[in-house]
Amino acid sequence: MVKWSTITIATAIIYLVPVKYIITAFIDYYKNRPIKMKNRTAIVVLDKIGLNYEKAREYAKQNCKIILASKNVKKAETAKKEIIQISKNKKITVIELDCTKKDVLKNFAENISKTENSIDVIVNNDGFEMTEMDIIFRDQKLAKERLETHFCTFLLEE
């Protein structure tokens, strides 16, 4: 004899398990979908490695207005030319930014607030690491560079 309860449970499992995976995949897609950057403004603080450059390039491909901020203006200008060549997006501005000087940061923030209606994204992915060498030799340039990348974010928020 056939037990209908067993067949019902087996049928429910066969139909409900794939539905669970479909719903989970749907939710994961919407949680992790890329942000649409068209007609938005992003400030990208260029780092030494080039990760922020890659992010700026991706935003430029999506027709985002980009403000490249860097201590080295020549490096930022070459990055701007490369990004324009790749993305055909001409809405890229280069501004000099030295994160070690509070007055420069303040002027940068004031200029941005005057020229831009809104800032949608700020990319400042420079890392921070404090080692014993930095504490011992805190007057040296290496420690200063590591500290400036960390505190730049906090100074910009003021």
TrEMBL record:
GO terms for molecular function: oxidoreductase activity. Pfam families: adh_short (PF00106). Keywords: Membrane, Oxidoreductase, Transmembrane, Transmembrane helix. It comes from the Eukaryota. The keyword Chaperone does not apply. The chain crosses the membrane at residues 6-30. Belongs to the short-chain dehydrogenases/reductases (SDR) family. This is Uncharacterized protein. It comes from Brassicogethes aeneus.
